[in-house]
Design brief:
alpha/beta, about 325 residues
Length: about 325
């Protein structure tokens, strides 16, 4: 029978995800020569070529991808076993490490922790690490966090065998106007009504993309008057009458801007950003992780400022900077 070495399979999977032997070695705290040696040993154990030269780099062979397809099922089963064992040893009060983007921390994670603390049973020990999507999924894949919160457009696809994705909510994007703006109190405000306004959004990246895409869907190209990526800076400029901005409802609630900003709900053509939780496949059944996911769902069910989603939907570009 073929010998399957889980440690070496994880190295092979990391090489697939990171792309180079050097990046794999850095991620696993190994030397490049040790990575190459381990993969050479694995190829000998399996009796197939796993790597082939491609210029100065290497790429995975078809046999390597076949091996990894089966290995993902092994990794998922090991996650389930680890979750069950943790539940057996610690009950439901184990530790859950969360990687979350910045506005999700006060809007979702902190309320969920409060719910867990207010319960009759001891809750899991939640440890939080602020991280944008790319870093959060690297941490999740490496086992450095147990749960990642991100925007759906920046999450792995639903068919990625490494992760299980849990849709949480659709966060509406509202319009921030100076409180004395001529449209601040106009009923039935539409995005198209703001076509001639100066806009405030990031100079590049996801938030620029979502603002431009939403405005173009409403029939106009926004004139970018100012560039900023932080919500405090954006809302301060809006309050000063320097322009208008699209702001996620979670961010505006967390920022608690002053009386000089009017947050208007769009009556039509309202864009959203979609928030998902992700865990390593198989880990969702662990008692501690399951309780944290349940608490997050309770928060999104009761959040008056956002709209709960039970099914994911295709998304255009959405913001990740918070």
């Amino acid at each position: 029978m073929t010998e399957w070495d889980v440690k070496k399979l994880r190295i092979l999977r990391t090489l697939r995800d990171r792309g180079t032997v050097t990046a794999t070695a850095e991620a696993l705290l190994m030397t490049p020569s040790a990575v190459s040696q381990q993969l050479s040993n694995l190829a000998g154990q399996l009796g197939v070529r796993l790597l082939e030269a491609q210029g100065r780099r290497v790429r995975l062979t078809d046999a390597a991808h076949l091996v990894l397809r089966h290995a993902e099922a092994v990794f998922a089963q090991l996650e389930r076993a680890d979750a069950e064992l943790t539940g057996y040893l610690r009950g439901e009060a184990g530790q859950v490490r969360i990687g979350a983007f910045s506005t999700a921390v006060p809007a979702l994670v902190v309320p969920a922790v409060r719910l867990l603390r207010d319960g009759d049973r001891p809750g899991p020990d939640v440890r939080v690490r602020e991280a944008e999507a790319a870093e959060a999924y690297e941490l999740l894949s490496a086992g450095d966090v147990d749960l990642a919160l991100s925007l759906a457009a920046h999450a792995p696809t639903a068919v990625d065998p490494r992760f299980t994705l849990v849709p949480l909510l659709a966060d509406p994007l509202d319009v921030a106007l100076p409180v004395d703006h001529r449209l601040a109190a106009v009923p039935g405000l539409r995005l198209a009504d703001l076509a001639s306004e100066p806009w405030i959004f990031g100079g590049s990246g996801p938030w620029s993309e979502i603002t431009r895409a939403a405005c173009e869907a409403a029939g106009f190209v926004p004139e970018q008057a100012h560039s900023a990526s932080g919500w405090t800076a954006i809302l301060a400029m809006v309050e000063a009458g320097m322009g208008v901005a699209l702001v996620p409802r979670m961010a505006s609630a967390a920022d608690r801007s002053g009386d000089g900003v009017a947050m208007r709900v769009l009556e039509a053509d309202r864009p959203h950003r979609h928030v998902v939780a992700a865990v390593r496949q198989g880990a969702e059944g662990g008692p501690a992780v399951a309780r944290v996911l349940a608490a997050l769902r309770r928060v999104t069910d009761t959040a008056g400022g956002s709209e709960r989603r039970t099914q994911p939907e295709p998304l255009g570009p959405t913001p990740e900077r918070d």
